[in-house]
Amino acid sequence: MNLSFRILDWDEEKPYELLLMADPSKTIVDEYLSRGVCFIAEYEGEMVGEFVLLKTRPETAEIVNIAVQEELQGQGVGKHMIKEAMEAARRLGCRILEIGTGNSSFHQLKLYQRCGFRITGVDRDFFARHYEEEIIEDGIRCVDMIRLSVDLNDITDEEKK
Fold first, then answer.
1. Which of 88, 98, 120, 158 is such that its CA lies 20 to 30 A from the CA of 59?
2. What's the whole-number mean pLDDT along residues 35-48?
3. Can you point out the beta strands (E) in the chain?
4. How far is 52 from 29, CA to CA, in rounded Å?
């Protein structure tokens, strides 16, 4: 799939349908959108995904939100978006790219590790502390944030594909 990427204009309508798939709190989404850059993935002129990149520390950025239209999941769109996020982080002068996901997000954990991310820690009770509504995925309560990172200088040729 030949995707194109662009940065969401500040005055453009926010793609909440996608953003809220990855993060059910509009308040939290709005907070990091105000500080980060939202990238739109398009296929044949249609928005098929988004990710939000936030510079967090010197030489470090984080993908704080990433989502693909449901009907296109499992077709490589997410992997293309992560590769674009890695390139965007490099353009920002970053060496480390981080991402976090729920303990119940098995498909995401698999994808991130296939792209070269390594688990660096667990933020215990993150979702219980920051979200009023309980989050359930595949019958499992999402409670902890699994933190992952990748050193962009250590990406192998296989992971770049």
1. 158
2. 95
3. 4-7, 37-43, 46-57, 60-68, 96-102, 118-123, 135-137, 140-142, 145-151
4. 10
For the chain, how many residues are written? 161
Beta bridge partners of 136: 141
Tokens standing for 81? Answer: 């978006």
What tokens were used for 94? 């970053």
Angle in degrees, CA 158, 48, 2, rounded to 5: 50
- Please tell me the distance from the alpha carbon of residue 66 to that of residue 19, in angstroms, as a whole number: 7
Using one digit for the tens of pLDDT, what is the confidence trace for 72-119? 999 999 999 999 999 999 999 999 999 999 999 999 999 999 999 999
Number of Cα atoms under 13 Å in the Cβ half of residue 52: 23
Give yes or no for residue 8 having a pLDDT over 60: yes
What pTM value is reported for the model? 0.91
Residue 135: both structure tokens together: 């989050």
Beta bridge partners of 50: 40, 67
pLDDT in tens, 137-147: 889 999 999 99
Q: Which are the contacts of 75, defined by CB distance < 8 A and separation ≥ 6?
A: 1
